[in-house]
Every structure is written in C-alpha cells, then in structure tokens.
Specification:
The protein is built from ten helices and eight strands. With 336 residues, the protein is an alpha+beta fold. It folds into two domains: 200 residues, Alpha/alpha barrel (Glycosyltransferase); 108 residues, Ferric Hydroxamate Uptake Protein, Chain A, domain 1 (Beta Complex). The protein has a five-stranded mixed sheet, covered by helices on one side. The chain has a three-stranded antiparallel sheet with strand order 3-4-5, covered by helices on one side. A hairpin with a 3-residue loop joins strand 6 and strand 7. Helix 2 runs antiparallel to helix 3, helix 4 packs parallel to helix 6 and helix 5 runs parallel beside helix 7. It starts with a helix and ends with a strand. It binds cobalamin (B12). The site of cobalamin has 39 residues, from helix 1, helix 3, helix 5, helix 9 and strand 4.
Length: 336
C-alpha cells in the first residue's frame, strides 16, 4: 500500500481549520512525519516520491501549519526537485509548484528552518511565483482554471498580490469562471482565495469567533435536457506492451444530458458486451482505473487519460464532463 502522505496532510489541514480543542492530533502528526520518510524511499529507486511531489509538498505544508519542524533534509529534497525542474508531471506543473511554494513560504515565515536555508526558500518561492506569472495566458488563467486558485494562494501568502499584475488578472478570470468549481475538492482550493486567504492562514486563525455560517443551500435542479446524442468512444493504448494502438472504437447513443460516465455505462450495456471499465471513488469523484481489463498501475505511473479528439485532455473527470453530440472521446492509457 502506498504511503498516505497527501490524505493525511489534507486531513490535518482540515482539522486545524475547524478550530479543534488543544492539540488532539499529535499521533497524526507523528504518522505524517513517518509517511514523508516512507514516501521518500521511492525516490532512491525512481527519482520521485512514491506518491508525488504534490503530496510530498502537502505533507510539509501541513506539518508547518501545525508548527512542526521537519528535518532540513526533507526540505532540501523539495528544493533540489524544484531546481532540477522535476515538480511538473503532465499538465499539473502549476498545482505542484504552487503547493511546494506555499510550504516554503510557511517554513520561512514561521522560522522553522535555519537562516541559510530560509534564504534559499525565499529565492525558490520567488522563482516559483515568476514561473506562475509567466504561465499566465491572455485570459488571465494560470495553468488551467483549477490550478489558478493554487497560484493565487502563493501570491496571497507571499504578499506579492500587492505588486504582481498577474494577481488581479487571475482573480478576474476566477470570478468569471466560478461556475467551474462544482465539487467539494475544487471548492476547497478556491474558497480561501475568494476571501483573500491562503492555506497558510489556517495557522493563525482566531478560533471561537466563527459564526455558524454553514447552512446548506437549496440547489436548483438542473434544467432537463430532452432528446438524444451520439458520442464516439475510442480506447487507445500507445504503450509498448500493448499489441494494438486502437482497442475500441464505437458510436454510443445516449440521452442528451449524459455525462462521460453515462456514456461508458451505455457502452458497457451494448451488444456484443465487449466494453467494460472500473472506477474508484475519490474526493474528486469517480477516477477511471481500468478499461477493457487493462488496469492503470500507480506504481508504474500509468493512468487512463481522458481526451476529446483530436488530442485535448479534459479538465474534468468522467462524472462531470458532458460531451456534445457528435464528439469523439478518447480513453488513452498514458504515463505521467
Ligand atoms: C497528481 C494528479 C493526478 C495524477 C494522480 C496519480 C497519483 N497517483 O498521484 C494523474 C496524472 C493520474 C491525474 C489524472 C487526472 N487528473 Co489529476 N491531478 C493531480 C493533482 C496534481 C494532485 C492530486 C493529489 O494528489 N491530491 C492529493 C491527494 C491526497 O488527494 P486524493 O483525493 O487522494 O487524490 C487522488 C485522486 O484525486 C486521484 N485524481 C487525480 N486527479 C484526478 C482527477 C479526477 C477528475 C478524479 C476523479 C480523481 C483524480 O488521484 C489522486 C492521487 O491518488 C491535482 C491538482 C489539484 N489541484 O488538486 C490534479 C487534478 C485533481 N486532476 C485533474 C484532472 C482533470 C485529471 C484528469 C481528468 C486529466 C485527464 N484529462 O485525463 C485525470 C483523471 C482521469 C481518470 N482516470 O479518471 C484536475 C481536476 C479538475 C476537476 N474539475 O475536478 C486537477 C485539479 C488538476 C487541474 N488543475 O486541472 N491527476
């Protein structure tokens, strides 16, 4: 079983944010320190933590927010990875670089590292902010709409929000696209930003003053879309050990409001029954793990990437994406 660095880190951040009674989670902190070390054993063999630099960065950030020191070696590992440009994988560079930059800012601000290392962290954070400003598109988005909140958290945490022109443009882009944040996982990353805060502020929250503002909203039901649509479903395996590139290609008729998950379910019910798939529940929704009996292997860093033809990766998961009539969707076994 892989180390639980990221989930534990998110849990600890969440706990702290809900104003718990005094230090109830000492053993969780000890576990997180243990998992960070476990996670790193992956790097000796593969050159990256067993989970990912994103989770490793979250781990350091959560410990820092809990005012816990980590060995300087643990921090230096992240610094080296950043210098060597190893934080990026696939389209997720901005998310990972931002999480790591937040962890660096926290360690430096809370003086949890020596002065020499603190100076290096300051330089590295500045470099990360520069990269993010450079990654900004003409629409103000940094990376994609879901990584933009992370980039904004860095500008807020470092105080660069006062001077960095990219900040205002990204904030405006966010306001225009708030409808994209429909799941708890994406909301958790954007909400602090809308209040001018970053995850670092969890460390200095004034507890006891929280009014009970968590009242459920009455959601309006989605307008019913009538009619049908047809989606072309393609499965590809470009990896060397696959006997063929294109493993499946078929038109799938579905109701007009169907999500990609509905399309996969409809394909599985078509005769002959030659399409099957599996998903795993995650806080982001169902994650596609297996198609046509081929399982994406975490330890080999493969995953089922989802794309719209000819070659654009989707920015949403299978349950959230609603294909258009006539669209071609590709499930491609890829490496990250
Ligand atoms: C690392 C990562 C991946 C890795 C995960 C593998 C791994 N072992 O680490 C890989 C490369 C496989 C991946 C794949 C995808 N990802 Co991704 N991923 C991330 C990233 C950078 C960190 C996730 C993480 O570790 N969280 C911390 C851990 C502790 O939380 P967790 O809930 O346990 O995380 C697990 C699941 O969330 C799952 N997962 C990762 N991505 C996604 C995406 C979806 C839609 C689902 C349901 C699950 C899922 O893998 C995580 C690790 O086990 C986030 C960035 C972010 N801002 O959140 C994007 C992010 C979550 N991914 C995203 C997307 C769009 C995808 C893909 C749909 C891309 C594609 N077109 O194929 C696919 C998923 C397709 C599928 N098979 O269902 C978006 C989701 C946006 C949204 N609307 O919800 C994010 C926010 C990136 C972004 N800025 O766009 N991802």
């Amino acid at each position: 079983e892989p180390p639980r660095t990221g989930r534990l880190a998110l849990y600890l951040l969440g706990l702290q944010a809900t104003c718990p009674p005094l230090s109830p989670h000492r053993s969780l902190v000890t576990w997180l320190k243990y998992y960070l070390e476990e996670d790193w054993t992956g790097s000796r063999q593969q050159g990256h933590p067993i989970t990912s630099y994103y989770q490793y960065g979250l781990g350091v950030l959560a410990l820092c927010v809990h005012r816990k020191r980590v060995r300087e070696e643990v921090v230096r590992r992240l610094l080296t990875a950043q210098h060597r440009g190893k934080l990026g994988h696939g389209g997720n560079t901005v998310d990972t670089e931002a999480v790591v930059a937040l962890a660096f800012t926290c360690l430096e601000r809370r003086r949890l590292v020596g002065t020499e290392l603190a100076a290096k962290l300051r330089v590295a954070t500045h470099e990360a902010s520069r990269n993010m400003a450079e990654a900004q598109g003409p629409d103000g988005i940094i990376g994609n709409i879901y990584s933009t909140p992370w980039a904004l958290q860095v500008f807020l945490a470092t105080g660069e929000c006062q001077t960095e022109p990219a900040f205002g443009q990204a904030m405006a882009a966010l306001q225009e696209n708030l409808g994209a944040f429909g799941t708890a996982a994406t909301m958790a990353q954007v909400l602090p930003v809308l209040h001018g805060r970053s995850y670092l502020d969890i460390a200095s929250m004034h507890c006891g003053e929280e009014p009970d503002t968590l009242t459920p909203l009455d959601m309006e039901p989605l307008a019913e879309v009538l009619g049908n649509k047809t989606v072309q479903l393609v499965v590809e395996c470009p990896l060397p050990w696959c006997y063929e590139l294109r493993l499946y290609d078929r038109l799938v008729p579905v109701p007009a409001a169907a999500s990609l998950l509905d399309v996969l379910q409809a394909a599985a019910a078509l005769e002959p029954r030659d399409f099957r798939f599996h998903t795993q529940d995650t806080p982001q929704g169902p994650f596609l793990t297996e198609v046509l009996g081929l399982q994406a292997r975490q330890e080999k860093r493969n995953y089922w990437q989802i794309l719209t033809a000819p070659n654009t990766p989707l920015q949403m998961g299978i349950a959230d994406y609603r294909p258009q009539d006539g669209e071609t969707l590709i499930l491609r076994l890829s490496e990250w």
